[in-house]
Structure formats: structure tokens, C-alpha cells
């Protein structure tokens, strides 16, 4: 088992990674079991795939374990769902000593993490990500929260888990599109922080997308998790360094908002956003053409949906409403080279529009 540390003083925690690790969870969590109530939070499909078995295996190992079913889809991340869940936790006899397990993708992780952060002013929780996006991104770093009708993730708190348990084998049941979309975020880590992993992903993209090489997949996930862990350790509250994780997100988010979730998944929008940010990096005189070509080549190999026709001015307007716009300037993460990112806030509007043309 690989163990990566997220060093945050008294809030430090390990990320454990191994193919098939879920089956060893009772053994892994045994040292933390002090007869408290354990609660698995998950969604229907994930419960039938993994949740029921996990519950049984924990029970057999002597854990007192309950199950909370969150609504399907993003509905799990709504304030209205929370009231009933908090009451349910009271009925189950949960208290300050309870430990929660978030078994699912980013939706479950964000919702269960928020519940853990606020129930009884905060209880321990463990992230067990079941999607590629959650394994490399959302389960690490402690960002928890729910959505409002006005937008996503508008209510939340940073509450670090006690551990993150990553079992890449769980990805075998994940729809292909979830894998390829999240691969956008995987590529992002290489592009902003690590040229070696970028090259490794690039030469093995097909195998990674098909989950054809579990050893390599585990290595790549581990590397991304470590990169995220290091960024979070340096800047837990996103005041500086953590913002480089937004590479591709300035334009990507706006594309996502414009086209909606059915047309474009998050990672797909980010892939397009990275292409545009790559073009801006060249125009800015930062990145060499040959690095951009490599970025273009790897993104070109992703099975991305073709973007419907759009007016770049509409996307620019959406970007100006985005919460990442500070002091009315649009912040961009650009590349100086593959593996090295910088944050800038002086990109001309005309250049942004040009970068979107031809996407
Ligand atoms: N907290 C953070 O730092 C952070 C970072 C990025 C994204 N997010 C949030 O994460 C959410 C997106 O997460 P996601 O992409 O993981 O999507 P998701 O949680 O909605 O999961 C995608 C779909 O896959 C299903 N699923 C999950 N695991 C499965 C498995 N192993 N086998 C079969 N089906 C499975 C789910 O039921 C769901 O239908 C968004 O709400 C986003 O805001 C949070
Ligand atoms: Zn993202």
C-alpha cells in the first residue's frame, strides 16, 4: 500500500492507495474503532455496487455501522436534503465521537464532508472516493459544501478528513465518460506541476482510459494525489499556490455554465479551457510552441464532445460574473512551460476572445 501524507499540522492525514484496498478497509480502520457509531454516506447505485458489502464487512469486524442514503446526482448537495439527514443521524444515536465515511464521487464527498463539518460542530470523516475525479481531486484538500439555486458550492467549509482511502479497482464500474472527463483533470496536474507525469500520461493515454494497466493507473492516481496534497499543504485556504489548480477552469467553468452539464462534463470543459489557456500562454510570450503542441496533442486524444457553436463574448460575460473574478480582473493560470504554471490578471479581453475562437 502506498501512503501519502497531507501535512497540515494537527489536521494532517494520510492518503492510502492500493488496487483492491476497499476489501481491507475493516483492517485498516480497526485502530480507529473505539466503539463509536460509524456512518456510511453514499448514493443508491454506489451502495448496491460497494456500500452494502462494505457495511457487512465492517459489521463482521465488530464496527457499529449505519448507512445514510443521499439523494442521487447533485441533489445530494442541497440544503434542503440536509435537515432530514441531521435528524436521521440523531435517531441513529450519533454524537461527537461518530465517524463518517463518504463513499462516492465528488458529490457524496462534498455533501458528506459538509455534514461531517457541521454535525455537532464537526465530527471525524474519511473519504473513500469512487470516481477518478474524486480520487485525484475532490477527496483531497477538505473543501466541502453544497449548492444554492444561485450557483454551485456557494455554501461550504474547509474540513479536512482523517484519511483518504483510494482503491482504483472501484473505477471498473464507472461509465467510460466519467473516466475520460476526469482525465482532463489528471492531465492538468502534469501540465501545471510535473512534466514527467505529463509525458507518462501522454504515452499511455489509451491504456489509462481503458483501465488496461492497473499498476500504471495506480501510479498516475498516486502521483496526482501527491501533487494535490503538496499544493494543499502549502496553501490550505486557496490564498495563493492552490489557485494554480484552476488551470483551464477560468474559461472551462464558463463553457460549463453556458452549455450545461448534459452537453459538457466538468473535466471535458476543463480540457477545452486548458487548450484556450495554452493559446493564451503562447500569445503572452511565455510558453514555447512545442509545449503547446504537446498539450494540444494529448487533449486531442481525449474523446471530447464537439462544442456546439457559441459566441465567445457570451462566455466572456459569464467569466466576468464568476467568483474567481477579483477586483473585476479575470485571473488566468498560464503555463511558462509544461510542468510550470503562473497566475496572471492582465490578459486582454481581445486575447481571451481570440483564444476561444476555433475551440
Ligand atoms: N471538494 C472539492 O475540492 C471538489 C473538487 C472538484 C469537484 N468537486 C465536486 O465534485 C462533484 C463531481 O464529482 P464526480 O465527478 O465524482 O461526480 P459524481 O459524484 O456525481 O459521480 C458521477 C456519477 O458516477 C456514479 N458513480 C460514482 N462512483 C461510481 C462507481 N465506482 N461505479 C459506478 N458509478 C459510480 C455516481 O453515482 C454518479 O452518477 C461536483 O459536485 C463538484 O462540485 C469538488
Ligand atoms: Zn476541476
Question: Could you give the topology of this structure?
Answer:
Elements: E1 2-6, E2 13-17, H1 25-29, E3 37-43, H2 44-60, E4 64-70, H3 79-91, E5 99-104, H4 106-118, E6 124-129, H5 132-138, E7 143-148, E8 151-158, E9 163-166, H6 176-193, H7 195-203, H8 205-209, H9 214-234, H10 249-259, H11 266-283, H12 289-300, H13 312-321, E10 332-337, E11 340-344, H14 349-356
Parallel strand pairs: 2-9, 3-4, 3-5, 5-6, 6-9
Antiparallel strand pairs: 1-2, 7-8, 10-11
The protein binds nicotinamide-adenine-dinucleotide and zinc ion (ZN).
Task: Describe this protein with a few key phrases.
359 residues, alpha/beta, Rossmann fold, Dehydroquinate synthase-like, alpha domain, 2 domains, 7-stranded mixed β-sheet, 47% helix, 18% strand, binds zinc ion
How would you characterize this protein structure?
The protein has 359 residues and is an alpha/beta fold. It folds into 2 domains: 2-173, Rossmann fold; 176-356, Dehydroquinate synthase-like - alpha domain (Dehydroquinate synthase-like, alpha domain, Up-down Bundle). The protein has 14 helices and 11 strands. It has helices at residues 25-29, 44-60, 79-91, 106-118, 132-138, 176-193, 195-203, 205-209, 214-234, 249-259, 266-283, 289-300, 312-321, 349-356, and strands at residues 2-6, 13-17, 37-43, 64-70, 99-104, 124-129, 143-148, 151-158, 163-166, 332-337, 340-344. The strands form 3 sheets. It has a 7-stranded mixed beta sheet with strand order 1-2-9-6-5-3-4, with helices on both faces. The longest helix is centred in the middle third of the chain and has 21 residues, at 214-234. The mean pLDDT is 96. Zinc ion binds at residues 185, 249, 266, 270.
